[in-house]
Amino acid sequence: MDGPVAGAASHLRRGADRPLRPGPRRRKHRAARVARTERHGWAVAPRVRSGNGNEEQGVARIDERRAANRRTGLMLAVVAFAFFVVVILKYKVFGR
Amino acid sequence: MNAGGDGPSHDAPRRAGFWPTMRAVLWSFFGVRKRQAYLDDAGSLNPLAVVAAGVLAGALFVIVIAVAVQVVLA
Amino acid sequence: MAAVTHEQLHGHHPGPTGLMRWITTTNHKDIGTMYMIFSFIMFLSGGVMALTIRAELFQPGLQVVQPEFFNQLTTMHGLVMVFGAIMPAFVGFANWMIPLMIGASDMAFARMNNWSFWLLPPAAVLLLGSFFVPGGASAAGWTLYAPLSVQMGMGMDLAIFAIHIMGISSIMGAINIVVTVLNMRAPGMTLMKMPLFCWTWLITAYLLIAVMPVLAGAVTMILTDRHFGTSFFNAAGGGDPVMYQHIFWFFGHPEVYIMILPAFGIVSQIIPAFARKPLFGYASMVYATASIAILSFAVWAHHMFATGMPAAGQLFFMYATMLIAVPTGVKVFNWVATMWRGAMTFETPMLWATGFIFVFTMGGFTGLICAIAPIDIQVQDTYYVVAHFHYVLVAGSLFALFAGAYYWLPKWTGHMPSEGLGKLHFWCSIVFFNITFFPMHFLGLAGMPRRIPDYALQFADFNAMASIGAFGFGLSQLIFLVVVVKCVRGGERAAARAWEGAEGLEWTVPSPAPHHTFEEAPIVR
Question: Where's the Cytochrome oxidase subunit I profile domain (chain C) (predicted)?
Fold first, then answer.
């Protein structure tokens, strides 16, 4: 239980509140693209650059993001299922 | 509180202590927050800590009302 | 580069066509559209039930339906509207708009998204099909209170399974939304820059994950009581029927917020757009939404003041309920403050949004009146309560849904909805809505109980008025159907930013939004 929770927590932090992009206007776009692929590996990035050797790396990043999604999703599903079980097993909690 | 927050390439620090987190949650119960305080929160609060503080403050809310009810009924 | 990228990305595009396209789609826009069509069909089905109810209540005595069938109608009207119309409609909005608003290419779990939707039609078939089984549909009221729900025929089982399936669908949808909002935001789109609609849906999704399993547990216990010899709620076997009410309302009260928080989100998008001012107190709005989510778990027994609670319990839930009105009041204040000295225009979405504030606030205040335990003991199970929750759910959730639909129809269809028909729809709806539901306050205060097919003579005039209003309101909704069909088929072309004051990433993509958007994540300053 500790693993997925910790994983999700770090991912949550990573996803939130990314700082503003600094630097001169001309370079903003490129800097952001680099930052983006480092953080997220958006599906489109490696395809746009296909042929320049980034392909494998890109696939790895997609997997990374999918794994992060799956981790968060599974954690939430476990929570939901736990509520379901707890309500039935511990129904006396709400009794008088 | 925001030391190091200027660095663009790494995440903002998440080291708000117990009381700033509690304070943010308690303000939420009133439903009002100053913009500057909110920006500070945005930069410093840890989401999981906020969830924990929310549950704690919820329990506190229940206790306070329960005590108030006891006082009224006494 | 754009053209090359486009080619590469869409080379594989011609997939299944016709019906198979919709059955196999994983596109968030397709799925959002299906959710909304589904919910509109269910809205019309629930509406027909409501009109049958109102036809019966037009005059005292029994004219149109038998009492047994009347009870089935009230039950199914509630279930269909809550689980079939309002909730899926908001999920449809979330599917369409959240990826567009946060700059994501799709939802996090695209295939699960397809499954979430396609669970709904079978559930609807179970629910509506239960009218045709021996004994008819469930007639225990939408709350499915024991002991009635432990005793009924197989229509009750079908309703239980339908609720199970819709619950699974809701939970999967909620997980999808949480993960999408947390993990799929475009670079620079921090949580605190997110449009309020995404915030309200994030918090709503957490509420769904927390309480839908509780409802599933409650109906599962009814099921085992009915068929497998348990006695959770069966007093004859040592069970406690009141415990069912506690469990149900532990789900039911957060459910109220599940149905209203996304509505708050939609209105918070529309008011700034047509007041041409940023939302007043964005931070406060986020905080208020979060606190409503926490506090909504501590007020459930205000639905049960008449079940014989100790005085301490009554006072506790009365105080807690009145306090939860504070953050809600802050929201109303913020909307009004957003409009204050704004350059306002009243296009159709804004009309619905302002109408929402006006009428929803009335529902909020009658809620406060019901929260006062001694008053609630007088009005509980009367038409006062019916009036209250229709002011909240129709004038709240439904009006906000219409506001959102008119606001984003240009983005969905590429055409502007007809202003004339939209305004007609609004004015007919708000006038007939009040004709229908305002007299119910008086009926309730005079003591007319809810869920009955016949009533004493002194209630006749207000009931006749309410029935006339109900038919007016029901027929007015067909105007919306006409508007949407016209808008899909043609009309004035919509610009990317269809409304002058509209802000947000969704207005940076063309109208209609292309099938695939933000495959290359946008950069948010």
Answer: 22-525
ipTM of this complex:
0.80
Q: Which chains touch B (3 or more CB pairs under 8 A)?
A: A, C
Which amino acid belongs to residue C24? T
**pTM (predicted TM-score):** 0.85
At C415, is the secondary structure helix, strand, or coil? strand
Q: Note if C303 is an active site residue.
A: yes
Burial tier of C274 (Cβ tally within 10 Å: 0-12, 13-18, 19+) = buried
Mean pLDDT, to the nearest integer, of C494-506?
Answer: 92
pLDDT exceeds 80 at position B45: no
> B7 to chain A: which residues are within 8 Å by CB?
19
Total domains in chain A come to 1
Location of structure tokens 């501590």: C298
- Which residues, in sequence order, are CB contacts of C472 under 8 Å at separation 6+? C428, C431, C432, C435, C436
Residue A21 pLDDT more than 50? Answer: no
What is the residue-wise DSSP string for chain B?
A: --TTTT-SSSPPP----HHHHHHHHHHHHHT---HHHHHHHHHH--HHHHHHHHHHHHHHHHHHHHHHHHHHH-
C-alpha to C-alpha distances, C391 to C250, C331, C361, C432, C434, nearest whole angstrom? 22, 17, 9, 12, 9
What integer best gives the mean pLDDT of chain C? 92
- Residue-wise pLDDT for C347-365, tens only, equals 999 999 999 999 999 999 9
Mean pLDDT across C198-220: 95
pLDDT for position B15: 66
Residue bearing the bigger pLDDT, C172 or C293:
C172
CA-nearest of C2, C6, C4 to C515 is C6
Residue pair C522/C508 in contact (Cβ under 8 Å)? The answer is yes
Give the CA diameter of chain A.
69
CA distance to C80, C130, C256, C455, per residue, from C451 (Å) = 16, 19, 20, 10
The whole-number average pLDDT for the span C403-415 is 96
Nearest-angstrom CA–CA distance, C420 and C425: 9
CB contact under 8 A, C519 and A18: no
Domain ranges, ordered by start, for chain B: 18-73
First to last CA, chain C: 23
Q: Are C221 and A91 in contact (CB under 8 A)?
A: yes
- What structural domains and CATH numbers belong to chain C? 25-508 (1.20.210.10)
Chain centre distance of CA C102: 22
Given a cut of 90, whether residue A39 has pLDDT beyond it is no
Which residue is listed with tokens 């609720």?
C163
Count other C-beta atoms under 10 Å from residue C144's C-beta: 24
Q: Name, in order, each residue with C-beta under 8 angstroms of C226's C-beta and a sequence gap of 6 or more.
A: C150, C156, C157
Query: Are C120 and C88 within 8 A, CB to CB?
Result: yes
Which of A39, A50, A63, A96 should one mutate to test binding to chain C, selecting the residue with the greatest count of C CBs within 10 A? A96
Distances (CA, A) of C416 to C482, C496, C510: 13, 11, 13
The total of other beta-carbon atoms located within 10 Å of residue C4's CB is 9
List the domain range (segments joined by +) for residue A40.
Answer: 2-94
- What token pair was written down for C218? 């409650």
Query: If DSSP states are collapsed to H, E and C, what string results for chain A?
Result: CHHHHHHHHHHHHHHCCCCCCCCCHHHHHHHHHHHHHHHCCCCHHHHHCCCCCCHHHHHHHHHHHHHHHHHHHHHHHHHHHHHHHHHHHCHHHHCC
Is C50 in the A-facing interface, judged by CB distances under 8 Å?
no
Which entry of C246, C276, C450, C486 is annotated as an active-site residue? C450
The alpha-carbon gap from B27 to the nearest alpha carbon of chain A, in Å, equals 21
Distance, in Å, from the CA atom of C515 to the CA atom of B61, rounded to the nearest integer, reads 47
pLDDT given for residue B1 in this prediction: 31
Contact in structure between C488 and C413 (CB atoms under 8 Å): yes
